[in-house]
């Protein structure tokens, strides 16, 4: 813990009602929300860091957060699930929607620009110190990019600075850190004139194979002129570069130009508490809000950014710090059950290649495919088809008990 108490405040420093640390999807969305309300907000981002991310966003994210077509580099109309034995299951989306693909090296700066256009002030830099003051305000030391140190006073702080969040480290005990996998990917130039059996520009390939990841999965996601190829794991010693090389070779991408390589931790469980009960709240990866099993995080990051902005406003307006807790409560009410189910799915089906073979076989089922796409694209469990859920449950049990052979 690094919090300190100070009796005196540097009155020459800049002051804001709200400061957001981190300019990715979560932080930029929080800053935009606050700025559009006319709030006095500063967005701080250290820049130059691109998160390793497949870049998939559901149609609900595109709709809810007004993401323009210019940011959608490709539309995936299907997924292909590839198992340990090379078995391939096609999952067509049909008329339900599509998966939008964004490039984080363009998407994140665009989000920051949108927040600035909405009225948020911006500072390129990183957080180096949090100091709590006697009047319940916070003094931040920001190391600017080429501009030295900046002293910033604020009444509310939103930490949206990723899985290695400095705000979280300075506010919460180390034991509060969420569990994570480490993700690595390579952005390569998309090839021309390649067999669709290897690679398709409107299809996401998801690979379940212990050689690629002993506890997660690998992916090949098209982004128009570029393609993301990568994997993730929590197993120390697993060579993700070698695994990615295998993925590239299998997809016919091994000779394609490599544009960049990126790696970072990916949290897979929301923290039990996102706020300090006073004037700090976490959002996005900093709060552990990435979906288990799928590793999807962009939609959830943007949603928590907005929810944390709302909670921070309410806390400041009412003087009730307890209002900060409403962000997590609202999120878990709508998405907690999905996170729980996805966590079970990962724990059960990602344990071994035998289980992965069974899982891939289940993905061929029409009920599984329809419920998966409707739940993913709309971000809620489908309640209007109880018999479909029952059929899927029965098939799950049959697979687990060995009563049904994998295809």
Record field, number of beta strands: 17
**Most strands sheet:** 7 strands, mixed
Strand percentage, roughly? 25-35%
Spatial gap, N to C terminus: 53 Å
Mean pLDDT: 88
Low-confidence stretches: 1-11, 386-394, 396-401
Identify the overall geometry.
globular
Question: Helical amount among residues, as a percent range?
Answer: 25-40%
TL;DR?
By secondary structure, the chain is an alpha/beta fold. It contains 10 helices and 17 strands.
Task: Show the helix and strand layout.
Blueprint lengths: L4 E2 L7 E8 L3 H12 L4 E5 L10 E2 L1 H6 L9 E3 L1 E5 L5 E5 L6 E3 L2 H14 L3 E13 L4 E7 L3 E12 L6 H6 L8 E10 L13 E5 L10 E6 L2 E8 L6 H11 L7 E10 L12 E3 L15 H21 L7 H24 L3 H10 L3 H13 L7 H16 L6
Parallel strand pairs: 1-9, 2-3, 2-11, 3-9, 6-13, 11-17
Antiparallel strand pairs: 4-8, 5-8, 6-7, 9-10, 10-11, 12-15, 12-16, 13-14, 14-15
Helix pairs in contact: 1-3, 1-6, 6-7, 8-10
């Amino acid at each position: 813990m690094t919090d300190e108490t100070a009796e005196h405040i540097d009155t020459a420093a800049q002051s804001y009602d709200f400061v957001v640390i981190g300019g990715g999807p979560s932080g930029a969305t929080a800053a935009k929300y606050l700025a559009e309300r006319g709030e006095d907000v500063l967005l701080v981002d250290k820049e130059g860091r691109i998160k390793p991310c497949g870049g998939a966003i559901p149609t609900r994210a595109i709709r809810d957060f007004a993401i323009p077509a210019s940011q959608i580099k490709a539309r995936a109309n299907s997924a292909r699930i590839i198992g340990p034995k090379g078995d391939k299951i096609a999952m067509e989306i049909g008329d339900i929607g599509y998966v939008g693909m964004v490039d984080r090296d363009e998407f994140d700066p665009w989000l920051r620009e949108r927040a600035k256009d909405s009225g948020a002030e911006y500072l390129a830099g990183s957080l180096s110190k949090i100091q709590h003051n006697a009047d319940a305000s916070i003094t931040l030391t920001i190391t600017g990019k080429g501009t030295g140190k900046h002293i910033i006073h604020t009444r509310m702080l939103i930490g949206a600075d990723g899985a290695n969040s400095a705000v979280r480290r300075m506010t919460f005990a180390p034991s509060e850190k969420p569990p994570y996998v480490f993700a690595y990917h390579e952005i390569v130039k998309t090839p021309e004139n390649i067999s669709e059996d290897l690679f398709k520009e409107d299809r996401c390939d998801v690979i379940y194979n212990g050689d690629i990841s002993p506890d997660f999965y690998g992916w090949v996601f098209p982004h128009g002129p570029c393609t993301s190829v990568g994997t993730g794991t929590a197993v120390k010693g697993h060579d993700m570069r070698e695994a990615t090389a295998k993925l590239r070779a299998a997809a016919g991408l091994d000779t394609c130009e490599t544009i960049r390589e990126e790696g970072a931790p990916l949290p897979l469980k929301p923290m039990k508490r996102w706020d300090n009960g006073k004037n700090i709240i976490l959002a996005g990866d900093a709060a552990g809000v990435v979906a288990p099993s799928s590793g999807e995080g962009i939609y959830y990051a943007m949603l928590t950014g907005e929810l944390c902005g709302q909670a921070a406003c309410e806390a400041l307006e009412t003087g009730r710090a307890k209002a900060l807790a409403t962000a997590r409560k609202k999120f878990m009410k709508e998405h907690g059950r999905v996170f729980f189910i996805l966590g079970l799915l990962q724990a059960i089906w990602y344990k071994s290649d035998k289980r992965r073979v069974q899982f891939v076989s289940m993905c061929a089922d029409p009920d599984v495919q329809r419920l998966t796409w409707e739940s993913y694209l709309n971000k809620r469990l489908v309640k209007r088809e109880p018999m479909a859920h029952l059929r899927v449950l029965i098939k799950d049990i049959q697979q687990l008990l060995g009563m049904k052979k994998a295809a």
